[in-house]
Write a structure and sequence with these properties.
Layout (H helix, E strand, L loop, with lengths): L1 E10 L8 E11 L4 E5 L6 H8 L7 E6 L2 E2 L5 H8 L2 E5 L10 H11 L4 H14 L15 H13 L5 E5 L7 H18 L2 E6 L2 H7 L2 E6 L2 E7 H6 L4 H11 L5 H6 L9 E10 L5 H9 L4 E11 L2 E11 L2 H12 L3 E8 L1
Parallel strand pairs: 3-8, 3-9, 6-7, 7-8
Antiparallel strand pairs: 1-2, 1-4, 4-5, 9-10, 11-13, 11-14, 12-13
Helix pairs in contact: 3-4, 3-5, 4-5, 5-6, 11-12
């Protein structure tokens, strides 16, 4: 549905400023019906990328194809037409203050030349879909942030687009409202089959709804893949720092400071054990403890849901030497992975 190939975007020099290459050598494919997220820090090039996909910017090199149409070759009038099959939602909602919720949603239909009756027939079910049937005649100032974004989503869907682009759509919302809006986007994707490309700087957004993720840094995509895989085995340092921001896998500070890299007589080994799947493997700990007659204590533990699957981490401490060897045997038998973080006395 969206294909970005070998894209470079350089903003030309202006008013004494040198040209800025915001994106280089970017490849990204989004299949029909997928939810794909692009995550990056401020200035990484996310907005530039999404503006290329909705035709607001043109690539300097490479191609940007949406639903089979290469946007890089279109004239302005053709671009306007192509944009009708692309809906977009924004961080600050971009609603018109002097228009009611109904009239904001109606706007793209008015621009497309629909008559009043067709507009009513389309807007009402959309307001229903986003849970705002009772707010049709409210003005933006009378709505909460979450409700405003619901209006934004209904407006983006008005012209029946195949693609929905989301530019930090939940960044201005509190965590609970963010969850509700993300659930709504997931529903829109599931019920209407709309392909969603979203950009964000929050890993929690990526983990909540995307099927695949691309990590962008300094204008290039440094890592991409299925969200669960990228989350549970991040390879690039940028990805690792995003992941640790939500999974909290760092050791408690007091223990981290005492951690030694090598075993010494009488030291306890700290071992990180990773679960992927149902989480029921946790029973293995008591089994090893029983079968191998070793004492284990849990230093830290956490189970998250990532892209609809369970991902857990346990950090346990066990006597170095034979105890550690027994633990590693048991972990391998249970089909899990472990890593020795170090030793403490
Ligand atoms: N119109 C422009 N002219 C010149 N440089 C630009 C322009 N727009 C963006 N840039 C530069 O391109 C780079 C990428 O910016 P972009 O806005 O795409 O990043 P971003 O990841 O969306 O950041 P943020 O999350 O802060 O919005 C930055 O160095 C920025 O200064």
């Amino acid at each position: 549905m969206i294909s970005i190939q070998k894209v470079e975007k350089t903003y030309p020099a202006r008013a004494g400023h040198a040209p800025v290459t915001a994106l280089s050598d970017v490849d990204l494919e989004v299949a029909a019906g997928e939810i794909v997220g692009v995550i990056g820090r401020s200035g990484a090039g996310k907005s530039t990328l999404i503006r290329l996909v909705n035709g607001l910017e043109r690539a300097t090199k490479g191609t940007v194809t949406v639903d089979g149409t290469d946007l890089t070759t279109l004239r302005e009038s053709e671009l306007r037409q192509a944009r009708r099959s692309i809906g977009m939602i924004f961080q600050h909602f971009n609603l018109l203050a002097r228009r009611t919720a109904f009239d904001n949603v109606a706007m793209p239909l008015e621009i497309a030349g629909f008559g009043r009756r067709d507009i009513e027939a389309r807007v009402k079910p959309l307001l229903d879909l986003v849970g705002l049937a009772d707010k049709a005649d409210r003005y933006p100032a009378e709505l909460s942030g979450g409700q405003k974004q619901r209006v934004g989503i209904a407006r983006a869907l008005a012209t029946n687009p195949k693609v929905l682009l989301s530019d930090e759509a939940t960044s201005a919302l509190d965590p609970d409202t963010t969850k509700q809006i993300l659930a709504l986007l997931k529903k829109v994707n599931a019920e209407l089959g709309i392909t969603i490309l979203l950009i964000t700087h929050e890993m929690s957004v990526i983990s909540a709804i995307t099927d695949r993720v691309a990590v962008i840094d300094g204008g290039t995509i440094v890592e991409q893949g299925p969200t669960f895989d990228v989350f549970t085995a991040p390879r690039h340092a940028t990805t690792q720092s995003f992941v640790s921001s939500v999974t909290g896998t760092a050791l408690p500070e007091a223990i981290a400071q005492r951690l030694q890299p090598a075993a010494v007589q009488g030291a306890q080994a700290l071992v990180r054990i990773v679960f992927r799947g149902t989480g029921s493997e946790a029973a293995f700990l008591s089994r090893i403890s029983r079968e191998e007659a070793i004492d284990l204590s849990i230093v830290q533990g956490r189970i998250d849901e990532v892209a609809g699957q369970t991902y857990g981490q346990l950090i346990v401490s066990v006597a170095g030497g034979d105890g550690l060897a027994a633990l590693e045997r048991g972990v391998a038998k249970a089909g899990l992975t472990s890593e020795v973080l170090g030793y403490v006395r």
